[in-house]
Design a protein that fits this description.
This protein is an alpha+beta fold and 142 residues long. 23% of the residues lie in helices and 32% in strands. The longest helix is centred in the middle third of the chain and has 13 residues.
């Protein structure tokens, strides 16, 4: 079986969270969604489970951090610089916060970040395929 990543995120408003991720291009998988959780698919191997607080609490007794906290920053790779910009801008236009951290551009790689409506921080990045494969020398321009 192919390895897959399921990111579980507690959310205060399941409908808002589902709409937010759909606006970024995630697709809802109804087989794993109900009135307490929505499975939002990014790729054949990456799934984001947005869970109501009550559902979240069935998995752990650890407290849910407030929206001003950051425990992790999740990073998604993109096909192009334009896709990075489109995703970060879409987040800001759909109840999220674009550029929650400063954008970065090293020439061979660039990234922007955003927070979803519940404060979960995401980074979207693009890297030149030649630099990623080692075919090109990495020269930072930042």
């Amino acid at each position: 079986m192919t390895r897959m990543l399921f990111v579980n995120l507690p959310v205060t408003d399941l409908d808002r969270a589902t709409a937010f991720y759909a606006a970024l291009g995630f697709v809802n998988e109804p087989r794993f969604s109900d009135d307490t959780a929505a499975c939002m698919v990014w790729s054949e191997a990456i799934f984001v489970m947005v869970l109501t607080h009550d559902k979240w609490k069935t998995f752990t007794s650890r407290p849910i951090p407030d929206t001003a906290s950051s425990e992790v920053m999740l990073c998604l790779s993109c096909e192009s610089r334009d896709e990075v910009n489109a995703l970060a801008d879409a987040a800001g236009n759909h109840a999220g916060t674009a550029d929650i951290n400063p954008s970065q551009d090293y020439g061979f790689m660039m990234s922007r970040s955003f927070a979803d409506p519940d404060g979960h921080v995401w980074e979207v990045m693009w890297m030149d395929p030649a630099a990623a494969s080692g075919e090109a020398e990495v020269q930072q321009t930042a």
